[in-house]
Input
Amino acid sequence: MARYDILIKGGMVLDGKRGAIRRADVGIDGNKIKFVGEPGGASGLMEIDASGKYVAPGFVDLTNHSDTHWRLFLDPSQESLLRQGVTTILGGNCGASLAPLVSGGDIQGIERWVDISQININWQGMDEFLKELEGHKFGVNFGTLVGHGTLRKGVLGLESRIPNQTEVDQMRLLLSRSLKAGAFGMSTSLGAAYGEMASDEEIDALLQVVAENNALAKHHLKDEGVNILPSLSQLIGFTRKEGASCHISHLKAVGRRAWEHAEDVVSLLDEAKKEGLAVSADVFPYISTGSNLFMLLPTWALAGGQKEILELIRTPEKRKLLVASLVDMTLHYERIVIASVGGGAADVMGKSVSRLADNAGKRPEDVMLDLLDINDLRVGIFNEVINPDNLAKFLSWESSAVASDGVGYNRRGDGLERDLPHPRSFGAFPRVLEEFVKEKKLLSWEEAVYKMSGLPASILGLKNRGVLEKGYMADVVVFDPERVRDVATYSNPFLFAEGMEWVLVNGRPVIENALFNGDNLNGQVVKKG
Output
């Protein structure tokens, strides 16, 4: 009789490839899966009784921000993700990464999320960054993209302009070195201040490097609102020309004027796939977004960095122009809820901008600017702008993966008394299983787990994770299908998901019988190739 280090006995296996669910044992030696087969023919030094439970590959979160929000260092266990069954996360999303850094000032790109005066940076290149991470203990596996905005800041500083050819070549060199060091691709956010001035020629030149390295191009759409179709068409055009795989981060149609375009979005993606283009997306399962309040300012106000934006707000004449622009934008202030503040005024958390304006007897535009001023722009918001039917439509698209678009936390961590994370950081993956599999039956168990494991691993190019199969890394979750659920709310997000009873990362249990074992952090730095 075969004997393994760990034997997961008698569970219903979901293989991560959409294979039919079946009862099987899973044998693990060291950090690898050695056996998946008929129950009863093996034993283990440690045996996990999975009777009545589902056994699946660890989930892969393609759109995660634990790195740029610095929680990877403040909360290295990443417990809120582990409690969802997430075992691998991808950072460097939406145009911002922690490497490469040409100068110390390049880290300013993350100042909207963290007080950069309180952090320590001892790397420059991607190789140095990944080597630094290898000296830390994390609860999850971590890989990264290269942020297009980070490349731009490294070459252009805070200048928002079209680069010359020499500068484009410098960005190409930084990108090439980073990909060779193990980054999985490049991310963009062409609607952000640092990305808006990028020319088609600049993006084409960088995507050539991505394609040459068989890497991933991952995009935050330039406009997720009324101009979502031309924004998507632009990216498909880049894909057609350069051949780099194209992935859309947190696919959504934001605002009522964009909702009617959802069907056309899916049609565009389907046509691109029929054409043979490698296109995919990921979706988080909520109708409220989580973002920064300053991102709602008019585009012209976002051209500079933090100092320049605050100068606009604090200069009376310029502030008048800001207020006038905000009035013209007709924002729905009753749907904009304050989630976090960077300093002072913590009593505003959980309240809408319209409610705060009514209480203060001010215009909502002035309250918005006051909040940004007091908190040095560090104001997080929840914004209910997604149509539930469109969410279901995007989630059920054949090449859409599940992602959190969130951050890993301990239940509470440093500074969180002024931070209400989006509940997706605590419950995105179980929410899909609870709402879209069990309740709405939009997805089967096999399809949902595939969208959380095998599909995102394939999109990223992870060859040895995301599937329950002999020879793969032993990232495994055991969950109770009756109990799995998301319990985090917008008013109280610090609630761990329920139902994940065992989570193994590289063969070591970090969730055991639904209890967290902080001594067993076993995440690895994962690199392309």
Confidence is low (pLDDT under 50) at residues 413-417.
